[in-house]
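Quick illustration for those who missed Monday's session on complexes.
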Amino acid sequence: MITVIGISGSLRKGSYNSGLLRAAVETAPEDCTVDVVSIKGIPLYDGDVEETEGIPEVVEGIKGRIEKADALLLVTPEYNNSVPGLFKNAMDWLSRPPQDRARVFESKPVGLMGASIGPLGTVNAQTAWLPVFRVLNMRIWFGKQLYVGGALNLFDESGNLVDENTKKRVASYMSAFVEHVAAQKQNG
Ligand code: FNR
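Prediction with FNR bound:
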């Protein structure tokens, strides 16, 4: 069984990206479970807090879950052509302290997808993530790309993906991603 931790970068109740992640959960192949982890409650990064109080419990909890999983799936919104601050903030906390990075992120295949209202469907946000993945030595998977643009027409008011063609694209992404993760796992 392949286990994937899925994280949406939006806290909005009717979030398209959380809806896209739910679609990924639903369309994942049978030999895969995607556990959704929320970044709600992660405080703003503050070096003084880290020094005096250590890593927040909520962050340590997520780090532990990522470490145990076979792969990570990040579902990113796009804010001002880039990564949303709250999602970046979550990744910044998750990357602390530096000596934990290897066990949390290295050798972990990472999938990336996103939905936005604009026509480009988070192309810019996904590109903006790349330097972050590089410095964390994450194994981003480039086998398929999933940019979901024009989200207003594809999701309902609760943020559920209702467009059948997009669901097929999500299923196709998940199938190929999980195949890749399984191959990586087999190769150690
Ligand atoms: C946006 N949005 C947006 N959309 C886009 O396609 N390109 C962009 O650069 C931006 N920029 C942007 C900045 C800020 C500050 C906000 C709040 C929004 C719109 C965005 O796609 C929309 O709010 C989505 O609904 C965000 O994703 P969730 O919350 O639905 O998952």
